[in-house]
Amino acid sequence: MKFITFKRLAIYLITFFVLLGLSLTLTSFWKQWDASLYGALYIDADAYESNLSDQIAVVNIEKPDLDSKDASLKQFRDKIIAFLNTVNAHHANNENPKAILLDISFSKDTVQLQALKEAVQQLTSKNEKVYAVYSLKDYFDKLPIFQSNDAGQARVLYDSVFTGGRLQSGFIAHDNLITYPSDIYLQTGFRDSVQIESIIKRVNLDRQGSKITPEFEQLVSPLGPIEAMEKQTYSFEIPDGSGMEGSFSPALNIDDKFILVGDLKNDYQEDIETPRTYFMAWALNEKLVDQKMVKQPMNNLAIIIGQTLFFSLFIVLVFSLLFKYITALKTKPKTLAVLAFIISLIFFVLYGMLIYTFDRIIPIGLTLLGMLIAVLLTWRFAYKFLVTGVAEGAEKYDVFISYSHGNSAWIKQNVYEPLKTFKKENGESLNIFFDEKSIGVGEAFTSKYMWGIVDSKVFIPVISEEYYGKNHCKNEMDLAYKRSVEKLLKIIPIAFSYNCVPQIYTHINFLDITVNPKFMEAIRESLLK
């Protein structure tokens, strides 16, 4: 029996790890739990506008929609060049921006490419920092090969002109939260990889003058209301007849500003109705302000998996302790499962509060999923363990009466009613499981009588000719016999005659009512032993 139990346990363990492995691949599912809880508990929505740095300025430069693709690209790049020239002119008036972040990627099209390069170099030669995002279209199309992704890019700009080189803006927004990786790695044809840093990470490191590059992180930032950012948004236009410089509307003093440039009309995320450049603005703002609106979650996968395994094991331990020491719940695996989950959840919350004191947030999605898998498998294991008849019961019932309903009138008069009058040594009446009295209308009949047997001290089967031919009676007798073999229950059989006893149970000593009409006295003596 121990071997069978161990084998079954091994199967459940393997099932747990397989299901957990599958859960790891369902990142969009459990990470949504993380984002929802994070947004509800850890973001100070009231502080969005008051915590928006006045160093943030967003400039809208729209790409014209002309019939000719080349004409549209030329006008768009002319506007960017004019913007850079305008910033250069403001520089001459001692208006020095902190940095310029172009939320615009540049393809290898030669249209105005040289003029664009010269405009950027004019600023960088004056120690102005000009960053630009690098297109990762091939990467997000599941083709993470650097050479193929890089082939269509304006490499002359990224290699030697833009500050920080190739930078990514892999922002993902969900409700009022932005997540983004500190780094994305593209494979090369030489079996190594190229690191593409987040533009926010690079700008922040340069702002702090840090030469130490932190390890990979999955960063988070608040996504504030669009109305707050619109107050610090400016349009840039080129006056008719002049392509060298332009103007801001409303007027913008660029001194000491981080200027983020994007096409707010066309680079727009429809599902949350927000320009994607605002993602970058809010992410940068979180790095600039002293009063942070979010705490960074722990995102090390090894820690997340370790946390998940620990609390999944913890829930099994709690279930086992409850099963062992609370006898009244031994035959209620569902109740035990719910209690084990609640207790483990309380400890999980306490653990989260402890980590919070160190200014970190624990991710909950995968761990909760692991705990749910663990508690369901533990409940199922306990259920199977109970129905095999080898689990210790709660000894809730002194006697379980098993019989065929064709003999119910005789059983009630000659067995049940006499047993009701019996008294235990302490003077109390016997607690009897008798289906007519113990199983209510609408209750699960099979489960109820099986749990009743497990919770009983003595099993009294009344064996008639039809008894063992009835499925429920057969189930009851077989389960009781298994428990008697394990010395978990005592069987006192009553038979209408020797011929009624099933062949497989003729080795058990039974009371033949044709031979011993005072069989209830014998039962009384047996119960008092």
Task: Explain this structure.
This protein is an alpha/beta fold. The chain has three domains: 1-33 and 299-388, no CATH class; 46-292, no CATH class; 397-528, 3-Layer(aba) Sandwich (Rossmann fold). The chain has 18 helices and 22 strands. A hairpin with a 2-residue loop joins strand 5 (172-174) and strand 6. The two termini are 29 Å apart. The model has no long low-confidence stretch (mean pLDDT 86). Residues 395-527 form the TIR domain. It comes from Algoriphagus antarcticus. Pfam families: CHASE2 (PF05226), TIR_2 (PF13676).
Q: How many separate structural domains? A: 3
Strand percentage, roughly?
A: 15-25%
Distance between the termini: 29 Å
Low-pLDDT runs of 5+ residues are none
Structural class: alpha/beta
Helical element count?
18
Q: How many extended strands?
A: 22
How much helix, percentage-wise, in residues? 40-55%
Gyration radius, rounded: 38 Å
Strand count, sense and barrel status of the largest sheet are:
6 strands, mixed
Q: Please list the strands of the largest sheet in the order they lie side by side.
A: 3-2-12-1-10-11
Overall shape: it is rod-shaped
Overall pLDDT level: 86
Summarize the structure.
This protein has 529 residues and is an alpha/beta fold.
SSE map:
Layout: H1 2-25, H2 27-41, E1 56-60, H3 69-92, E2 99-102, H4 113-124, E3 130-132, H5 137-140, H6 146-150, H7 155-160, E4 167-168, E5 172-174, E6 177-181, E7 183-187, E8 193-198, H8 199-208, E9 218-222, H9 226-230, E10 233-237, E11 247-249, E12 258-262, E13 268-269, E14 274-275, H10 276-288, E15 296-297, H11 301-325, H12 333-356, E16 360-361, H13 365-387, E17 397-402, H14 408-421, E18 432-433, H15 435-438, H16 445-454, E19 456-463, H17 471-485, E20 490-491, E21 494-495, E22 511-512, H18 519-528
Parallel strand pairs: 1-10, 1-12, 2-3, 2-12, 4-8, 15-16, 17-18, 17-19, 19-20, 19-21, 21-22
Antiparallel strand pairs: 5-6, 6-9, 7-8, 10-11, 13-14
Helix pairs in contact: 1-13, 3-4, 8-10, 11-12, 11-13, 12-13, 16-17
